[in-house]
Amino acid sequence: MKASPVVTKRRNPRALLPSLVLLAALAAGIGPTQAGPLPAPSGAPSSQPGVPADLIPEVPDPYGFVTVEVGDYFSCDIPPDWSRIDNYGSGYGLSNEEKKTHGFYLNAPSPSEVPVTIAIFYYAEGNLMYTSLDHYLRVFSQSAPEGDGAGNDYGTITPMTVAGREGMVFERISVRSVAGGTGVSGKPGVYIKPGLNARRVPVRERFVVLPAKPGFYALRYTATEEKFQEFLPVFEQVTQRFFPGGRYIDQPRATERGTSHD
User: Fold this and answer.
1) Of 115, 224, 243, 260, which residue has the fewest beta carbons closer than 10 angstroms?
2) Which one, of 171, 170, 176, lies nearest residue 151 by Cα?
3) Could you tell me the residue ranges of all domains in the chain?
4) 129 touches 101 (CB < 8 A)
């Protein structure tokens, strides 16, 4: 009885080369030590965690803003070199709490014939300044009655989102009278009463208005037409760092005034 021939398949040595290389690497201790996903190629997103957040440097802040809070009504970041005036023009001889207006004014450090200011206020329902958000818009976004506000120009109200809240933004240009000297006319024997030689100066303003429950928020930037663009980036930064009801608007906070007015 003849033995059956054994058929041996000859493998291509090239097909064994990767396995031999892997075995050699493992023997030398330079191969992978544990299973895991391969690193993402350069430029592709990786599912692995990156640098811890607390080790990532903060985005540079050219203005060095500081955070302020007005009760539980709102918080915002403001430039430290601007002077802050609380209860500005208290009106009616009342405090902000009595008027139900909560906020402050900021004055730019640079002198100007018309002060460069930013006003940041929450107007509660029933406040003594503006009966409603619509009332505020009528005062500042529409032309004054005939015979008043000559030279004023009112822009269109457009939508705007601030801190996830839908609001609106608009501008206006008005004309203000600025005292034009000491009263000396330059001509012998001629004297002009101070105020009669006042100059008319164009003033540009931007308003950002956000509805609230109840009441509304208003951010107002005022500067001469000449200074408007110079300080506009500061107002834009203040607007981006404004938080109605505080930093945690989705979590009502218990304070001495009650829950947040969001």
Assistant:
1) 115
2) 176
3) 67-181+195-244
4) yes
In angstroms, the CA 242 to CA 166 distance is: 13
208's tokens: 């950002």
Smallest CA-to-CA distance from 118 within 88, 94, 163, 146 is with: 88
Question: Structurally, what CATH architecture does the domain formed by 67-181+195-244 represent?
Answer: 3-Layer(aba) Sandwich (3.40)
- pLDDT, tens digit (0-9, with 9 covering 90-100), for 199-255: 889 999 999 999 998 899 999 999 999 999 999 999 999 999 999 986 544 444 333
Q: What angle do CA 82, 78, 130 make, to 5 degrees?
A: 95
d(CA 78, CA 108): 11
Identify the CA nearest to 149 among candidates 132, 169, 182, 173.
173
